Each structure stands twice: as C-alpha cells, then as structure tokens.
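Our collaborator T.R. sent over the components below with a one-line note: 'Predict the complex.' Nothing else. No constraints on interfaces, no templates requested, no preferences about which chain binds where. So this is a plain run: every listed entity goes in together, and whatever single assembly comes back becomes the starting point for the next discussion.
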Amino acid sequence: MKILDYYMKILSVSLLLMLILDPMWMPCASVHAQLDNVDPAPLAKILQDVVEAIVSGNYSEALLLCEKALAISLPKDIIYTHSKLYRNIEQVVNLLIQADDVITSGIGDSSKLYVLLNELHIAKLKLMETIDSYVSKLLPFFKDSNMRRIIVGSLTNYILNLDAKLEATLTKLMQLYLGTYGKEIYIELHHQPVVYGGGTLGIDILSITDLDINYVNLTLVLIYGDMLSQMYQYAIPVGENAKIDITTPSVEDIIAMGLEPAPKINAKLFVIAKAVDGKVLGYQTSNFQLVYIYPSIRISVPSYIRPGEEIEVNISADLDYPLNLLIYLNTVSNASLLANLTLSPGERVLALSSRGLPAGYNKLIFLSEPRGKYLAYRFSHNLIIMLEKTVSFINTKPFVIIPFMKPGLEIYVDPPINYNATIYVGDTIAIRYESISNSKIAAEFSLPPTFFFWKYRVLVEIQPNNPSYSPVIVENSIYVLNVATLAIALILIAVITTSPSKMGYIATALILGGSTVKSLISRTKNTSVLHTTVIRYVFRKSRLLNLYKKITAVVSKYIEPPRPSETLREFYCRFSKAFSNSYILPLVKTFLELYEKDLYSSHYIDFVEAMNIVKQIEEVENR
Amino acid sequence: MLNRLKRLRTGRDFILMLMFTILVSSMSVLINMPSTSPYSPYNVGDRGYTQLTSLTLGTAKFIKDLKNLEQKALIIIPLNSKPDSSLPQLIENLLENEATVVILDEDGYSNDLIRYFELKAKIDPVKVLDEVSKVRSREYPLADIKFGDTVFEVVTYKPSHIVIDEENCFIIAKTSRYAYADIDNNGYYSIGESMDEYIIGCGWRKRNGYLWLISDLDIFTNELISLKDNLEFLGRLVSLGKVYLVIDYLGLGSIDVSKYLLNELALGVTTWGNISIALLVYLIILVASVMMKYAEKH
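Returned assembly:
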C-alpha cells in the first residue's frame, strides 16, 4: 500500500504539471484567405439574363433570376444599388405582367388602365436611371479595360432592347386607353427637342381629317420624368398649322412642390384629339428633354486683406436674366448673412466691408437662388484677414530681494503704435496700462506675499489699438527672495534648537531615532556637555531551537520549564536535583551542552547527534 | 547516514516524477496538440476533418488501410497525393462487395483510376469560381447535388471541375450557370474564360456498388461542414451505412500518423469532446488513491 501511495504522489504531481503543459486548448488557426473585391462580369451577366428574360416575355424566369440576384452577398458599397436595381426590375416585371393581361384581355376599367400606364411609365424611368447608376458602380471593379468595354457594350445593347420593349408596351397601353378608333384625325407634331426649365415649348400642330369639322378639341398632356404632369386644352382649326406655346415648369416650381430638380428630365407630350362628345378621334405622342443648368457665374475674391480694408468682389455673370445672390460668412444662416443683392447679367465689382470680421481665416459663401432654368449655385472662398506683426520684448531683473528691491520691467513695442499693456504675475493681473503711445515704457508692479523664495512667471500682453496689428504676448520669469522672513525663520530655528525646552528634546529624540551607532549632539547648557551613543545588537537564531523546545516540552511534565532569568546550567542543576533517571539525565545534559555551544560559540555542532538525543528521549517517554 | 538516505530518496522521487511528467506530457502533447496539416483528421482548424467524426457521432471513422473493410460500407477517399497503383484494384474489390466509394479529388490524381474503370470522365484541375451562387465569396461556389428526391445545396471551396464525355452518370452535381473556370488564376472572370454550369460531382453504378467522384476536398472540412446543406448531405451518406474516411492519400506528416496509431493502439487516449479520456482515467485513479489513503489513516 505504501508503494502505491508513493507512486500515486508522483502521479499526482506529474498530472498537475501535465495539466499545465497540456496544449489541448491550443487554438489552431488556418483560415482561408477570401477575395474582397467583386467580380463584375458575373453580375453583368445575370443582369443581361434578367433583361433577356424580360424582353423575351419570360417573366417568371426574370423574377426567379431577380430573386437569385437579390440573394448575392456583396460589399456595402454596391449592395444598396444592386438591391435597388433588382427591386425596380421586379416592380417593372410585375407591371409588365399586368400590362400583358390588360392587353390580352382588353380594356376593363379605364381609370385602372390610366394608373397602370402612369406607374409603368414612372417605373421605366426609375429603372433606366437605376441601371445607369448600377453600371457606373460596376465599372471601377473591372480590372481589365478590354473586358470592361466588351461587357458594358453588350450590356448597353440589352438595356436598349429593354427600353424598346417597355416603350412598346407603353404605346400599346396608350392605344388601348385612347381607344381603337383613334385614327380618324391624323395629328402632326413639331417642337424643339430640348427646352430649358421655365422656358417655352413651342408646338406646331397640324391636324388632318376627312371628317366634316372645322375645329378640333385637343388635350395636351405633358409628363415630366416621374415628377409632375401638366394638362392643357385647346381648340384648333383643322387642316392648318396651329402654334401652341406651353411654359415648362421653372426650377422654383419644382422646388415649391418639394421635389429635387435634376439637370436633365425626360418628358413626354401626349396630344389627344377628341370630338365634342368626348370620343377620341386621334392621338400623337412625342418626347423632349427639359433641361436645368447651373448659372455661369465667376466670382473673384482676394485671398487676403488687411483689417478694415474693404473686400473687393469681382462678379462676372453670363445670365439671361437677373438672379438673387446671397453672401454669407462661414455658415449659411440669417445671422451670418453679409449681403443680399440682385445679380444682373454682366460684370460688376462689389465692395464688402470687413468690419467685424475676425482676424485669420474666414469663408465667404456665395449662394444664388434658383430661378427659371437656373439651378442653385454655391461658391465658397477662403479669405484671410492679415494682421501686421507686432514685435515686443520685455526686460526684467532676474532676482528681486524684498523688501530692499521693487520688481519692475521695461516693455519695448515695435512699431511705435498706440496700444494697451497688461502685466500678469502668475495668473493674476498685476497692472494694466491703456492707450500708450511710447514704444518703450518702464513698469513697476507689486507681488503676491512671498515667504522665503519663489519663482514667478511674468506675462505681458500687448493689445494694439489699431486692428491692423496683431496682439502679442511676451513672457519672462523672476526669482523673489524675502530676506526679512528668511532671517526671522533662521533666528527661530536657532532659538528652538539651542533652548532647553521640551520641544528641543523631542527634536533631538527624533533626530536620534533610527540610527544604528551615532554620536550626534553636543548640547551646551551653561557648563555641561551631553554625549549619547546608541548601539544595536544582533543575535543569530539557534539551529537547535526547535529541538530545544521539544526537550523542554518533555521535561516540563516533571519540573518547571526554564525560567527567563535562568541560565541553561542553572536549569540543568534544578533538573538533575528533581529528576533522577540515569538514562535521560545524561542525554539532557549532552543536549544542553550542544545547545549552549550553538548559542554562544561558532563551533561545529553535530545536528544529527542532537536529533538522536531528542528521538531517544521521545522513545523513552512514549514507552 | 539517515540524512543521506533521505536526500537520496528525495532525488529519486524527483527524477521519477520528472520522467513520468515528461512521458505523460509528451503523450498528451502528441495526442491533444491540434495538427495543422490540411485535411488532417486531427486538425481542428478550418481545413481539418475533425468535425467529420464528432458531427456524425462516431459513425464516420478514419482508417489507414482499405483491406478488411465492412461490406456495403461508404468509403470516402480524399486524394491529396498521388495514390499507389494498388488503389484501383482495392476499390474494385470494394465495389464488388457492394460498397459505395466516394473519391474527393481536386488535382486529377484520380484520372488514372477513372480510366481503369473505363469511364469517360476526368478532373480538370482549373479552379471554379462563382460570384452569383456562393457563400462568403466567389471562392466558395454552391453546387446542387440531386440525391434521390432531394437537392442538396453544398458549399465547396475552390473546386476543380469534372469533364464528362458520357451520359451514364446516375448523379451529377453542378454549379450555377454564373460559375467560371479561372484559367489564368487571377481570381476574376477574364476574356476567354467560359461562364457556365460546371460539374463538381458525378456518380456511376459500377460492379455491384457505386463510385462517386467529387472534385473538391473541402466539402467535409470543419469550415464547410456546417454551412448550407453540407451536413445534411453527409447525413444522407452516413445513412447508407458505416462511413470510413481513408487517410492514406492525404499526404499527412509523421505526427498525424503517430496520432492515428496512438488512437488505434490505445483506446483510452482518444479525445472525446475536448477532454482526453486518458486524462479522465488518471483523475479517477488519483481520486481513488486519495480516498484509499484517507481510509487507511482512519
């Protein structure tokens, strides 16, 4: 059993070490590196497949592919446009499914058809815009320019086919909406292909018919992008050219409707000829573009000016009509408005006051308000208000001994201008001078109470009264020595240390405490001198102390244990008198001799012999 | 004298303890330290096969010799190095015994084997990428494996593809039609590369058994086994019977082989969960000895 116990001990210690060394929790990292960038070609391919499915009328396939495309995991920078595109495609496909149903089954509810027509038209415009944006997003991912050219070219063809398909569906729906008998009047339209916002769309209309009528009622519907539509009604003579001018929406009209104007908007014109009873006799459609532009304004502002100078702003405006121009400082708010003026076509020079502008960098913001065909224009320019550099230095006495000296300094300022000077000692103002014209002044100031010795920081702030000059701060240090308090303190210390008071004794005791051997103080008291010596003794601990304790524990059963005042020999005498065992007595004597040797000498001690003695005594005692 | 004896005893204790510690710790290190070799059954990292046994609750077993295997078993043979010439014959014997043999091969090591069975197929070691049907990135293409009435969407990692010139396969696993073989290995679709469906797996009825070929070594690795339908696919394979994964052709190092031998020789040193069974046994012995000592004293 003992052997098993022995090996179990070894095993347990080994186990502990093994647990420490056990690497079973050691992580093992081997992770595949992943490609971060998108490969655009498969994305273009799936878009092509979706478009092809739509064009070929396989809408279920198109929706399945959309679902697949929406499940693709992509980086953040493209995922939004990607999802938006396929959501738009899904919307268009669903509308196309509805449109096909309507076209196949014929017109049901004309108002629903009108809604479908509008929705499809708007969805088409949105989709085309999203496709443009998506293709632009894909372009940077192509590593090979040839590949980019081939794939984008192919994709463009597919998109054109999709556009044609959607346009054809829209036309069919329009025909259905207008009726199948709408060819009794032929309408010919002519107008400019591009018109500026707020401008006039001049439409030449010629209506030809075999019907016996002199005038025909025309309804003109204009749809601008996916934003707004206008409707007009006219009666024009048949067989003659009629000219109709329509004012297109200006940029402020669009903004007033809460919409954001785009620089280019695709617009569609529907002209519907109706009989008096409302019957549609004919129709015609055409496209044009509504364009908004940024005003051609060039603004020239100096990069820097001196304080107080006027800011000369050169404005060159190539405009068709005046615009309102607002000028702001740093931010666009009513509080920061510097000027509000009407900007007429041509060149002009504007002088702005710089009064109140802070020195340093300032940003001037020019904002033209949108009007007619002109979009809002924003231009900003950094303007620095430069100050002349003021040079100043101070001359101070480095040491001040109070109360014999008074602190002072000399201030030099260049160029000689009118200025204010403030002297700080530390953080507090020591003295302030106003409207000084001399370039050199001498100043005296008072100091905070200084007990013995202190270093003070002296700051002089020069604030020129002319705003063209920059303020300046100069700094220096002075050392202050208070001789009076120092002398008093020295005298006090001398009196305390030499007087025979209790305090003196306490101070002396404190100084003496902790030293090992010192002879420190010679203290005079009329006629006597006191010398003090402190000595620390160090005893080594006996190696037989534990054995000695065991022996005393055993013999204490028979006699009183060794007393503190008793030597070992005295104890043995007492023991030998009280105890007469011939076997134990010599053992105790031998042990005490060994213990005495160990305590008071440097002789070799047989430690094993001492252990044996104790063991023998314990064995006898245990019998 | 007694003191000297004591010192001697203490020294002997120390040496014994040290030897025991070194022995036990070395074994522990060898058994428990995870391997870093790709496709090692002891690699707990992404590219290891450790979860193959833990997730199948021990149904799948690693073996080192194809001889004397159970009949009708499913034997997975990953080929990460060129097999010896005896492998075709061994596989043929297994197929005769109605076994199902699944060969995982990305680098075309199995092409000779396929020829041996007079099959018109071969592994083309060009890696297949797929930006559309994928997990994480295009290097992890998804492949649809039709197994009975179920279609498993299995994740692969840079698989090769199989070129088949026959129509006798009873099963075919394909990528989406947006996958492409990255011939120039630049990680992108390039001019000249073909974007199409690629065959990642196929199976034949041969002799009395079935022979499968899958052109990806990673589908059962720790990284992929829990993704998409990989585990379900493995479960379906496991349902066919006992599964054996042959480690002879994985190109493992001597440490992995030693681990395998230790596992085979000493049942107690296998790792179960994250606790070494050997460690558990040692702890039980320790507790028993402490209790015995306590009983002896009282």
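Summary for T.R.: Chain B touches chain A through 59 residues (CB under 8 Å).
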